[in-house]
Amino acid sequence: GGPRPLPGQEVSVKVLGALEDGGLVERDPRLIFVPGHGDVVQALELGVPTMQPGEVSFFLAAFPYAYGRPGSREPDVPPEAPLLFEVTLLEVRDGPDPQPLPPAVRLRLGSQRRERGNFHFARGDFAAALRSYRLSLRALDGPATAPPGPEEEEELREQRVKCLNNCAAAELKLGRAEEALAACEAALRISPDNGRALLRRGQLLAEQGRDAEAALDLRRALELDPASKVIHTELSRLAKRQSRPSST
């Protein structure tokens, strides 16, 4: 009984997911998500908003609405596998984003959405991945009910940097170099010695012909990771380009 979930509301569901042969691949006694945010497979995104609290539903999902053509390692789902989901809608409540949240809840939401972004990225859906990463940042940067402790503050900082690096990777896959560069710079404002952001910004600056700035980033990245073959290759390519005689 009760109203169905409205756009932007958060739901809690109990989920069981099984293969056609009956093998159980997914069991979550309390999965929390906001439909439309891309945090779960499409079968749940589309199906749960049709339910009322307390209702139990079965959704037979063709593979595009489950784990896609490649399947999944975690959970262990074969390629192109349809799934049968048993879903119980436990609770519907207002979405968490506009509300002040404890730091631990912000971290949970941020991690959940970043991991969902990684899921989309691995399957080549870079626009969906970027959407999930941005939602993760929104959760991490949202209002808090209390100041985070030192450990929570450090974890929030690390998660922001991971999300921004992931945003940069997704922007590059979408062919948006300027947006990728902006994401790298945002990550470096939080963590100036983040090797991943330094390397990617160095590569992007080199592509723009800003060789001196690129060299600074790449040399600093090499100091942090002297064994990186990628950084050595980038610096070597940059040095060769700089050593060529200019045309007159």
Automatic annotation (TrEMBL):
Recorded name of the encoding gene: Fkbp8_1
Per-repeat ranges for TPR: 195-228
The Gene Ontology CC terms held by the record are: cytosol; endomembrane system; membrane; mitochondrial envelope
Q: Which species expresses this protein natively?
A: Irena cyanogastra
Per the UniProt record, which EC number(s) apply here? 5.2.1.8
> What is catalyzed by this enzyme?
[protein]-peptidylproline (omega=180) = [protein]-peptidylproline (omega=0)
- The first-level EC class reads isomerase
Provide the GO biological process annotations: negative regulation of apoptotic process
Database matches in Pfam families: FKBP_C (PF00254), TPR_16 (PF13432)
Q: Any idea which UniProt keywords this protein has?
A: Isomerase, Repeat, Rotamase, TPR repeat
Q: What is this protein called?
A: peptidylprolyl isomerase
Example GO molecular function term?
Answer: peptidyl-prolyl cis-trans isomerase activity
All copies of domain PPIase FKBP-type, residue ranges:
8-93
